Amino acid sequence: MVPFLDLRLQHFGLEKELKAAFARVLASSQFVLGDAVAEFETAFANYCGVKHAVGVNSGTSALHLALLAAEIGPGDEVITVPMTFVATTWAVIYSGARPVFVDVEPQYATMDVSRIEGAIGPRTRAILPVHLHGHPADMGPIVEIARRHGLVVIEDAAQAHAAHYKGRPAGSMGDMGCFSFYPGKNLGACGEAGLIVTDNDDYAATMRQLRDWGQQRRYHHTKLGFNYRMEGIQGAVLSVKLPHLPRWTALRRRHADEYSRLLIGAPVATPTEADWAESVFHVYAVRSRRRDDLQRHLALRGIQTGIHYPIPVHLQVAFRQLGFRDGDFPIAEEFAHSVLSLPMFPELTVAQQDEVADAVRSFRLVRTAA
Ligand SMILES: *Cc1c(COP(=O)(O)O)cnc(C)c1O
Q: Looking at CB atoms within 10 Å, which of 63, 118, 160, 292 has the fewest?
């Protein structure tokens, strides 16, 4: 059997270091924020080459606070994409603003920059691109358009730790960059965690205040705040893991190369990388017009796969009140129907990749049941 993801392997390998980190937090008993979180914030800010990092309790909270720091709220519009994890859109809704979708481009399923200007109106305040599957969106034109129209850029880098755009780290190109450390992300906590990076002193100060009940100092609440603080244990775990991220990223990229080589001539389209991008393959997604049959075919051979994502955000029942319909964003919809994520994690072996590729190749011989 080839699992889609096996987090235990990573944790076995780091068991001693992680237990020591847990023990340190237990000894200090700084379970919420504290030194371990502050140390990780500094390390991650340095890693991204930015001034500030603000640790929070999830990637969703990171997005929410970034929007609030930019003073985005009711009556405002935020331009984003319908092909993403639903949290990107929820965060916009939480802020009170209205999400305005532009379709993705067909290659990497990231924001189609040629559609942005057509979506800008008098209420537009921000652009929120997503580095889907770890492949950076085309940030150059996005930032340039935003500057020309006086808009804030917030990057959803929840899947893109250590990804690069023309040599620059994901999350560092917009006004703020939001990360998730959900356990299955490329850098994962042992629980929920997230973080925002920014060079802007005011945004950072506002987000530090908002994550902690809007306190200016203890029990003096000057803003409507939230309980969005990062836990000490997660800060300590993430500090242990961060130095391993470059190696894990190199392994993911090597596995992606290997899959693409093994799948030459197979009945699927393999993912490509823009010449300006260094993807971190949070997932390795192939495409097939018979995706559901292919997924069943692989499952019968013991190969677990995933779909990221089967329903674009604009067609989710929860967003029905936004009034979108089938066909509104055809590229995102086509992507949702055809995309299939193969097993991908740093510890994946060549033998497992061979097994997956053989199973995909043998799909060619299978006739559709219907
Ligand atoms: C995981 C993810 C989020 C949300 O992060 P959480 O830590 O789960 O709240 C947001 N956006 C994208 C693209 C994600 O993949």
A: 118
